[in-house]
Amino acid sequence: MNGAQSLIRSLADAGVEVCFCNPGTSEMHLVAALDLVPELRAVLCLFEGVATGAADGYGRMAGRPAATLLHLGPGLGNGLANLHNARRARTPLVNVVGDHATYHKRLDPPLESDIDAVAASVSGWLRRADAVDDLAADAADAVAAALGPPGRIATLVLPADLAWTDVSWSDAPAVGVPGAVEVVEQVAVAQEVVAGAAAALRSGEPAALLVGGAATRGEALRAAGRIAAATGARLLCETFPARLERGAGVPPVERLAYPAEAVAAQLAGLRHLVLAGAAPPVSSFAYPGVAGDLVPTDCQVHILAHGPEDLAGALTALSDATCAGAGAQLLAPERPLPPTGALTAETMAYGVGALLPEHAIVVDEANTSGPWLPGATAGAPRHDWLTLTGGAIGQGLPVATGAAVACPDRPVLCLESDGSAMYTVSALWTQAHEDLDVTTVVLNNGAYAVLDRELRRAAAGEPGPRARELLDLSRPGLDFVDIARGMGVPAERATTAEEFTRALGRALAEPGPRLIDAVVPALV
């Protein structure tokens, strides 16, 4: 057994079931080792940003890490944007990054770079392997680090000569991981912290409970719903939750808006803000004359739980302290009627709300075309909603790919803006190659509409012809039907609300990947 084989065997024994791969020469022994470990599924991605985004989507839905296999520093760099999003989502994820052989690096070959510096910008755990006999333990440590609460990116850098060198222990094929994967346990929240949050929520002054991380789903969300119902506090969640459970039978949660001015209006008048797995709200960017810290000046912030602390346990304890057996308000089943007439961002949202299937996974990178989606889908059958956590666009198609791999029994609906789709459009090929049940709706407005909006909000003046050229995607227009079909994904175009509803119904009814090119006007 060589080092590559021991590493792949160790990943599988530690519970890693999928590796999203875009390898190169320095990873060929790892590629060969995959044949010896059939329980570790290898998924080919044609761009590293698809591999890292797919691993993010997988980890969000599976609750355990997928691996990526990336080629040297440039390959890792190509995947960096979606690793940034995964870090913000607190996704457990293991990167295996090949490097030049240790003795070859001194020659400064063309692809030589500072891998460790690139990896450190997104990794919560980073190790450069330096002994072939330790590779199995290195892999197990990476998995344990990724699973440590609340979830993080672990990166293991593997020099090529360690991959091809034989391990010294004779019984390596039978041993697998030398020792158990020891995951750091969650830290219990102190009783006095829970009591302080309870006192704030029961003070009679305007209060809100802002949840994030694992508090946006499952029993933690239900506990938050009971707290809000019993105390009268508003229940809010992060602007970009990693995974938000929604729909009929789920407590209603108000997402923080994206524009800073809108968040300031949402929070106006609050005297107490209790944070459960969420950070204090700040604006995504600085704007002239707009405050970046969005917490009202006379509002007291109370941190219930964050980082490695037991978020679900803290919310359950807070529920016990405030609810006295009260139940949470739950959303009633409700759907909009199928829309008719012109296809717009609004009628598109009604079409999604009318047809969204039960237990769907919705990946939302609709951006400026998405304002009506939350309201139109609030009473739909129960579903999960995955969002653009770190703001680096090009996340939607890859995250949908990984979510479909993690949950093959659930339909995945990806709502993708046209500009963002082009960043990682090759994810469609992986969806076809793996026959994944993903329906992609590209909201094709022919523009980088978000940048047009940001140009105005930044008070940069009225855009002239050269500025407008940088915001325009209409010369030439993007034909997503041809793009999708060229990658093996059946596709059709919709230009009216009726066409969209029919196309969406057909796509959701058929297994495998489908794409709808939904032509909508840009919102300004």
From TrEMBL:
Belongs to the TPP enzyme family. This is Acetolactate synthase large subunit. Residues 385-517 form the Thiamine pyrophosphate enzyme TPP-binding domain. Residues 1-106 form the Thiamine pyrophosphate enzyme N-terminal TPP-binding domain. It holds the Pfam family TPP_enzyme_C. Keywords: Thiamine pyrophosphate. Gene3D superfamilies: 3.40.50.970.
